[in-house]
C-alpha cells in the first residue's frame, strides 16, 4: 500500500476526536484495529513512544505500512464499532473470541398472532429476540414451559384478518389436542392472543415472579368460588412455573436488576463469565474465551468482554459489578467492585463459573490441540521469566546424598514442555568429599556443559536449579567460567514457598500458584528429584551388597563385579540356582556364597 505522505505526517493530521483506527501491513491486510478517546493521542503513542511498548507490540508496529481511521460520536460508539470490525476482519494482533459460535435465541416474531420459537439467526425485522442462551437445552426448557402454560400456534401460516375472515384455513392437530386456540378459524381474538404474548414476554425477560403471583391469585379466587376445575388448572401452572424457576435460576435477596462480569487469565488466554440478574434471579449466563496476541491490561480485556455482551444482549443494566474496573466508562451504567454482602457473593459465583470454564477449556485444549497447548505454556514461561526466547529445551539439576554418603546428582531434560527421558543423565560426584551441595552443583554443571561444548551439542534455553540461592550461585559461577552466563538463562526454585530465584536479583519472583509457568517448573523440579533419588537408592543398595560380598572368603573384586552386574542385590544372589552361580563364578566361590548367605 503506497503512501503519499509518511505515517508520522498522517498521525500529526489526526483529530482529537473519539474513533476507531485500522493498521495495515505492506500487503494491505488489516493487522490491528483499535479504539480511542482521542485518535491523535492514541495512535501517536505507537510511533512516538516505542520504548513504552511491549516486545510484541513493537513487533506489530514494525509491520505497519499504513493506517486509516473513522471518527464517531462518543467513546462508547468507538468501542462498539471496534468490536464489530474485529469480528468482520479478524486482525491477527487483536484480542479475539476463541470460539465465536452462534448462540440460540428465542424470538417473538413480528406478525399477526406471533409465533414463539428458537432461532440462531438474528434478523432485524422488528421481531423481539431474547437471549442468547449459552445452552440450547436451556432454551428448549424455556420453550417447553411456555408451551405447557400458553396456547401458542406453531404453524407458519400468514394469519392476516382478511384471510381469517375469508375462511382460508382449517384447524389443525394442535387445536384438537388442546395446544392451540385456533386463531386461524377465528376461535381466538388477536387481543386475547396478545395478552398471552405479553405474559410470555415477561417470562422471557426473567420475571417469573409476577406470573407466579398472578396464577396463585387466580387459583385462590377460583377455589374460594368453588370453581375447582379452574383452580386445578391454575394449580398445575403454578407448579410448572415453580418447578422451572427452582431448577433454572438462583434467587438472592437483592431483588434487583444486575449484570455481573468476572475474568481469569492464563498466559495468552482470558476466560470470562457473564451473569444477568432480573429481580434477583439469574436469567442469562454466558462463558467466553479470548485469545490475547499482544500484552493487554486486564481492564482493557474486560472492556472488550463488556462490549461483546452489549453486542449480544443489548444495553447493560444500570448496576454492573466487576472484580476490577474496565478501562472505559459505560454511560447509563454504574460499574462497581463489591466488597461485602449479596453483591460480593454473586460476584464470587460468577468467578467460580469462570474458573471452572478455564479448567475445562484447558483440559479440552490439552486433549484436542496438544501442540497449541504446549506452545501456550512455553510462551507464558518466556513472558513470566523474561527469557529471550521460548524455552523449548529446559534442563534441571538436583543433588542427592544422605549425610554425605553416595553423593549423586541428576539432570532431567524437557523438550517442548514434555520429558525427554532418553536425554536424562546421572552423575556420581567425583571431586567433592562430604555433604557439600554447592561444590557438587559446581562439579555436575561444569561436567555437563563443558562436555556439550566439546561435542557441539545444542544448549538449553533455560537451566533450572533445584535449591536455594547457594546452589544457584554455584551453578552460575560455573556457567560464567565457561562463558555461558549470557547464553543460557539460569534460575533456582526454592522448595518451601515455590519462589523463583534469579542470579544477581535479591528479590525472589513470586508466580501465581495457578500459573502454567510455575506448574511446569514444579513438574521439572519434582522429576529431577525423583530421578536423583532413584539413582541414589540404587547406589546405596549396590554399596551395601558390595560390602557384604567383600567379607566372604574367596570373593575378590572381579567376582564381586560379575555378581553385581548380573544380580544387582543380595536377595537375587541368594535366590540364584547353585548351578547358575557355578557357571558364573566357579564352584569354589559358589559354595562360599551359599555357605555365607
How would the blueprint of this fold be written?
Blueprint: H1 7-12, E1 19-24, E2 30-36, H2 39-48, H3 55-62, E3 66-71, H4 75-89, E4 96-97, E5 105-108, E6 116-119, E7 128-130, H5 136-149, H6 161-165, H7 173-176, H8 190-204, H9 208-224, H10 228-248, E8 258-266, E9 269-278, E10 281-291, H11 298-313, E11 319-321, E12 334-336, H12 341-368, H13 370-384, E13 393-402, E14 405-415, E15 418-419, E16 425-428, H14 437-455, E17 462-466, H15 469-481, E18 490-493, E19 500-501, H16 516-549, H17 557-567, H18 570-575, H19 578-585, H20 587-596
Parallel strand pairs: 8-11, 11-12, 13-17, 17-18
Antiparallel strand pairs: 1-2, 1-3, 4-10, 5-6, 5-7, 8-9, 9-10, 13-14, 14-15, 14-16, 18-19
Helix pairs in contact: 4-11, 5-10, 9-10, 12-13, 13-16, 14-15, 19-20
Please tell me about this protein's structure.
By secondary structure, the chain is an alpha+beta fold. Among the domains are: 7-94, GIY-YIG endonuclease; 258-367, no CATH class; 382-538, 2-Layer Sandwich (Nucleotidyltransferase, domain 5); 550-596, DNA polymerase, domain 1 (Orthogonal Bundle). It contains 20 helices and 19 strands. The chain has helices at residues 7-12, 39-48, 55-62, 75-89, 136-149, 161-165, 173-176, 190-204, 208-224, 228-248, 298-313, 341-368, 370-384, 437-455, 469-481, 516-549, 557-567, 570-575, 578-585, 587-596; strands at 19-24, 30-36, 66-71, 96-97, 105-108, 116-119, 128-130, 258-266, 269-278, 281-291, 319-321, 334-336, 393-402, 405-415, 418-419, 425-428, 462-466, 490-493, 500-501. Strands 13, 14, 15, 16, 17, 18 and 19 form a seven-stranded mixed sheet that branches. Strand 8 (258-266) and strand 9 (269-278) form a beta hairpin. The longest helix is centred in the last third of the chain and has 34 residues, at 516-549. It is elongated and about 120 Å long. It starts with 6 loop residues before the first helix and ends with a helix. Residues 540-546 have low confidence and may be disordered.
Amino acid at each position: 500500500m503506497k503512501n503519499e505522505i509518511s505515517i508520522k505526517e498522517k498521525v500529526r493530521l489526526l483529530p482529537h476526536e473519539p474513533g476507531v483506527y485500522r493498521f495495515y501491513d505492506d500487503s494491505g491486510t488489516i493487522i490491528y484495529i483499535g479504539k480511542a478517546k482521542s485518535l491523535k493521542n492514541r495512535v501517536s503513542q505507537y510511533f512516538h513512544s516505542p520504548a513504552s511498548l511491549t516486545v510484541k507490540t513493537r513487533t506489530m508496529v514494525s509491520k505497519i505500512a499504513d493506517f486509516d481511521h473513522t471518527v464517531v460520536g462518543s467513546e462508547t460508539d468507538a468501542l462498539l464499532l471496534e468490536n464489530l470490525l474485529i469480528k468482520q476482519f479478524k486482525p491477527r494482533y487483536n484480542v479475539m473470541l476463541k470460539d465465536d459460535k452462534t448462540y440460540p435465541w428465542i424470538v417473538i416474531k413480528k406478525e399477526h398472532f406471533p409465533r414463539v420459537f428458537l432461532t440462531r439467526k438474528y434478523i432485524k425485522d422488528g421481531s423481539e429476540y431474547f437471549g442468547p442462551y449459552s445452552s440450547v437445552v436451556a432454551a428448549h426448557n424455556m420453550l417447553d414451559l411456555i408451551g405447557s402454560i400458553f396456547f401458542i400456534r406453531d404453524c407458519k401460516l400468514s394469519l392476516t384478518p382478511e384471510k381469517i375472515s375469508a375462511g382460508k384455513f382449517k384447524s389443525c392437530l394442535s387445536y384438537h389436542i388442546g395446544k392451540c386456540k385456533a386463531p386461524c378459524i377465528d376461535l381466538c381474538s388477536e387481543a386475547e392472543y396478545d395478552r398471552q404474548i405479553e405474559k410470555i414476554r415477561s417470562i422471557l425477560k426473567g420475571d417469573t415472579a409476577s406470573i407466579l403471583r398472578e396464577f396463585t391469585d387466580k387459583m385462590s379466587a377460583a377455589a374460594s368460588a368453588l370453581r375447582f376445575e379452574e383452580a386445578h388448572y391454575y394449580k398445575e401452572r403454578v407448579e410448572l412455573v415453580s418447578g422451572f424457576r427452582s431448577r433454572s435460576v438462583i434467587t438472592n435477596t437483592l431483588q434487583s436488576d444486575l449484570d455481573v462480569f468476572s475474568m481469569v487469565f492464563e498466559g495468552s488466554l482470558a476466560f470470562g463469565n457473564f451473569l444477568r440478574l432480573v429481580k434477583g434471579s439469574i436469567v442469562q449466563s454466558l462463558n467466553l474465551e479470548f485469545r490475547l496476541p499482544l500484552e493487554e491490561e486486564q481492564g482493557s480485556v474486560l472492556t472488550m468482554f463488556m462490549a461483546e455482551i452489549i453486542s449480544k444482549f443489548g444495553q447493560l443494566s444500570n448496576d454492573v459489578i466487576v472484580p476490577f474496573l474496565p478501562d472505559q466508562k459505560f454511560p447509563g451504567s454504574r460499574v462497581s467492585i463489591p466488597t461485602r454482602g449479596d453483591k460480593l457473593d454473586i460476584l464470587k459465583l460468577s468467578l467460580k463459573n469462570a474458573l471452572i470454564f478455564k479448567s475445562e477449556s484447558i483440559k479440552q485444549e490439552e486433549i484436542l490441540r496438544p501442540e497449541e497447548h504446549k506452545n501456550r505454556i512455553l510462551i507464558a514461561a518466556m513472558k513470566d521469566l523474561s527469557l529471550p526466547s521460548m524455552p523449548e529445551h529446559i534442563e534441571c539439576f538436583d543433588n542427592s546424598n544422605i549425610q554425605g554418603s553416595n553423593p549423586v546428582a541428576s539432570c532431567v531434560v524437557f523438550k517442548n514442555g514434555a520429558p525427554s527421558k532418553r536425554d536424562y543423565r546421572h552423575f556420581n560426584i567425583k571431586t567433592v568429599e562430604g555433604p557439600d551441595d554447592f561444590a557438587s552443583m559446581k562439579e555436575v554443571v561444569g561436567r555437563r556443559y563443558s562436555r556439550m561444548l566439546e561435542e557441539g551439542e545444542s544448549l538449553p534455553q533455560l537451566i533450572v536449579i533445584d535449591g536455594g540461592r547457594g546452589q544457584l550461585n554455584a551453578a552460575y559461577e560455573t556457567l560464567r567460567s565457561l562463558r555461558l552466563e549470557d547464553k543460557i538463562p539460569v534460575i533456582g526454585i526454592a522448595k518451601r514457598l515455590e519462589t523463583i530465584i534469579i542470579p544477581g536479583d535479591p528479590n525472589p519472583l513470586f508466580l501465581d500458584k495457578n500459573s502454567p509457568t510455575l506448574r511446569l517448573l514444579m513438574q521439572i523440579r519434582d522429576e529431577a528429584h525423583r530421578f536423583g533419588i532413584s539413582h541414589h537408592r540404587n547406589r546405596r543398595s549396590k554399596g551395601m551388597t558390595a560390602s557384604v560380598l567383600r567379607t566372604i572368603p574367596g570373593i575378590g573384586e572381579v567376582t564381586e563385579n560379575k555378581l553385581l552386574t548380573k544380580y544387582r542385590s543380595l536377595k537375587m544372589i541368594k535366590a540364584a540356582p547353585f548351578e547358575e552361580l557355578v557357571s558364573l563364578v566357579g564352584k569354589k566361590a559358589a559354595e562360599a556364597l551359599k555357605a555365607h548367605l
